C-alpha cells in the first residue's frame, strides 16, 4: 500500500468515526454507509479497528454503533487541556451571572457548528444546543458568527453546499455576513429553536485567527426589552476572551 492509498484509508476510517460521533444516538452500519457514501462492506471493515481501540462500541442490545469508552478519555482531556475552553470558562461564567441567561462556547468543525461547552442559567430554556452536539453552519447566530469569519473560500464552499439550489437564501446569507463582519456579532430568533433569541460574538487568537464564538441564548419573550444590553455584554466578554487567548 503506497502513502496516498494509506492516507485514503485513514481518512475513511476517520469519516466513519466522525459519523458515529456526530449522530447523537446509536447508528446502524447501513446508515453510516448512506451518510459517508462508502460501501457497507468498507464500513464494517473500518469499524473493526475502531472497536478494537475503544473509539466505537456496539450497542448492548441492538446491531447499532455508538462512541466507545476512549471517547470519554478524549472528552475529559479536551475539557481539562483545551486552551480555548480554559481561557473562556471564567468569562462565560461571569456572563451567565451578569445576564441570568445561558451561554455556550461553540466552534466550526467539518462544516458544522459544534458546542464545546454550555453554561446554563437557573432560568429555564428549551434549546437543542448541548455540549458535543452539532448543527449546520448556516442557521442561527452561532453558525453565522463563525461562518462570517472563516476564510472566504471555505465560507463560499460551505454556503454553496449547504444551501445548494437556494440562490435567494444564499444571497440573503451573504448580505447578513457582510453586516456581521462589520458589527462583530450576529443575532437570530427562532432560526434553530422556535422562540429562542440568541446573540453570538466571535473569539479570536493572535492575528485575527478565528477560534470560536460565545453565544447567549434566551427565550425571546423574556429578553425582548434587553437586546442592546445583552449584545453589549456578550461582545465585551468575547473581546476579553480574545485578549486572554493572545497573551496567555
UniProtKB/TrEMBL annotation:
A single GO molecular-function term is:
DNA-binding transcription factor activity
Question: Which GO BP terms apply?
Answer: negative regulation of DNA-templated transcription
Q: Does the keyword Transcription regulation apply?
A: yes
A Pfam entry, by short name? HTH_IclR
Q: Does the keyword field hold Oxidoreductase?
A: no
- InterPro entries, alphabetically? GAF-like_dom_sf, HTH_MetabolicPath_Reg, Tscrpt_reg_IclR_C, Tscrpt_reg_IclR_N, WH-like_DNA-bd_sf, WH_DNA-bd_sf
The residue ranges of the IclR-ED domain are 70-247
Task: Name all HTH iclR-type domain ranges.
Answer: 7-69
Q: Which keywords appear in this protein's UniProt record, sorted alphabetically?
A: DNA-binding, Transcription, Transcription regulation
Q: Mind telling me which PANTHER family this protein's record contains?
A: HELIX-TURN-HELIX TRANSCRIPTIONAL REGULATOR, ICLR FAMILY, HTH-TYPE TRANSCRIPTIONAL REPRESSOR ALLR
Q: What is this protein called?
A: IclR family transcriptional regulator
**Record organism:** Pandoraea faecigallinarum
Amino acid at each position: 500500500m503506497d502513502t496516498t492509498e494509506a492516507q485514503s484509508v485513514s481518512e475513511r476510517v476517520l469519516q466513519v468515526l466522525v459519523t458515529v460521533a456526530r449522530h447523537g444516538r446509536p447508528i446502524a452500519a447501513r446508515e453510516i454507509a448512506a451518510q459517508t457514501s462508502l460501501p457497507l462492506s468498507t464500513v464494517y471493515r473500518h469499524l473493526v479497528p475502531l472497536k478494537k481501540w475503544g473509539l466505537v462500541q456496539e450497542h448492548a442490545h441492538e446491531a447499532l454503533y455508538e462512541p466507545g469508552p476512549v471517547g470519554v478519555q478524549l472528552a475529559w482531556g479536551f475539557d481539562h487541556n483545551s486552551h480555548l475552553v480554559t481561557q473562556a470558562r471564567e468569562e462565560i461564567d461571569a456572563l451567565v451571572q451578569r445576564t441570568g441567561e445561558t451561554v455556550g462556547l461553540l466552534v466550526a468543525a467539518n462544516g458544522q457548528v459544534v458546542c464545546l461547552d454550555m453554561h446554563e442559567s437557573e432560568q429555564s430554556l428549551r434549546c437543542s444546543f448541548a455540549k458535543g452536539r452539532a448543527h449546520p453552519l448556516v442557521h442561527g447566530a452561532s453558525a453565522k458568527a463563525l461562518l462570517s469569519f472563516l476564510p472566504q473560500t471555505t465560507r463560499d464552499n460551505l454556503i454553496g453546499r449547504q444551501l445548494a439550489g437556494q440562490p435567494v437564501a444564499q444571497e440573503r446569507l451573504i448580505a447578513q455576513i457582510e453586516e456581521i463582519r462589520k458589527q462583530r456579532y450576529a443575532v437570530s430568533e427562532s432560526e434553530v429553536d422556535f422562540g429562542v433569541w440568541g446573540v453570538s460574538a466571535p473569539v479570536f487568537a493572535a492575528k485575527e485567527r478565528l477560534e470560536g464564538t460565545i453565544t447567549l441564548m434566551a427565550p425571546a419573550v423574556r429578553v425582548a426589552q434587553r437586546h442592546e444590553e445583552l449584545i453589549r455584554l456578550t461582545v465585551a466578554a468575547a473581546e476579553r476572551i480574545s485578549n486572554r487567548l493572545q497573551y496567555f
